[in-house]
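Bump. Still looking for Magnesium transport protein CorA structure tokens.
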Amino acid sequence: MSSLRKVGNLRSVRGLQKVARLTRRSPRVDLSHPARSPLGSSVVKCVTYRKGVRQTAERDGDLVEAVAQVRKDDDGFVWLGLHEPTELEFAGIAELFGLHPLAVEDAVHAHQRPKVERYDQTLFAVFKTVCYVEHAELTATSEVVDTGEIMVFVGREFVITVRHGRHGSLGPLREQLESTPEQLAQGPAAVLHAIADHVVDDYLDVTEAVQADIDEVESEVFSSTGARTADPGRIYQLKRELLELKRAVVPLARPLQVLATQPIRVIAPEIQAYFRDVDDHLKRVTEQIAAFDELLNSILQAHLAQVTVAQNDATRKITAWAAIVAVPTMMCGIYGMNFDHMPELRWRFGYALVMGVIATACVVLYRGFRRNGWL
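Sorry for the wait, here they are.
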């Protein structure tokens, strides 16, 4: 309780006790699979940074004490990372940092569109993360793109990241930032930029992997046996997965424009220039997705055209053979009527003549159909 007495000005003691109990059982690890800590806590990491340098605390992960010290010294910030917290787990944290209830609800329940919202002194941003799902062979039911979410609360002295999904760990990003203290020294806004840049870079990686699948399908469709062996279900599956990727990428354009152009209290103007660079990368991804969608439409239309041509070829062959068979059928039908007074019935060479006429007519029809490409 000694640490709680040091922060009597931090809202209510009851909320701080919840946070204290939550953070003290968090491990000193940053796991991405499984993402939750072995002890069941949603807190993945809690670290204090001053002048871009990570601070070593007596008890790593003691959020209450870290926030109290940062607010007392008015220097540095706390980066708290969580994975799929429950309402109960997040309640004390929200009270400690004064987070808006609407933003807290979005962070806990997830399934949000990419967005940026401002609540007094706090900025709340939502990013959709994407991951390419490796598969030995693309089928009509293969999962190609898996999505998750990262919610980021940014204040003057804190960054809170809430991650949903089993991918998109921020551990490697945290290590990368710690290796460049001059970037971390710019404060929580620099962390927000790094997360946005990390998410968009993942978009680029996924689009490159999806392009390989599209190239594979395209090669199969335009092969010599494409009309018979190509599976249109694979094309439809790629279009569905591409739609999921599009839903994650395209809505992020507006939030990035807000971060890059509009004045925001917790983001310095020099940081906004970096958001413009991220926005340029996002536009590139958006253009690639639009091009992929058009290409898949063209591949699907080409495949349907190939199937139609193959069906027409089969129909013409059937028609040609039916016309050839119709000649002997007609002549045999005529001379099978068994009338007593039919010409050539009693003639010695009648049978040979009829067979010769049938054979000649069939040969002429066959050569005519072959010449015209029907056989």
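The beta strands are 43-50, 53-55, 77-83, 115-119, 122-132, 145-154, 158-164.

Edit: fixed formatting.
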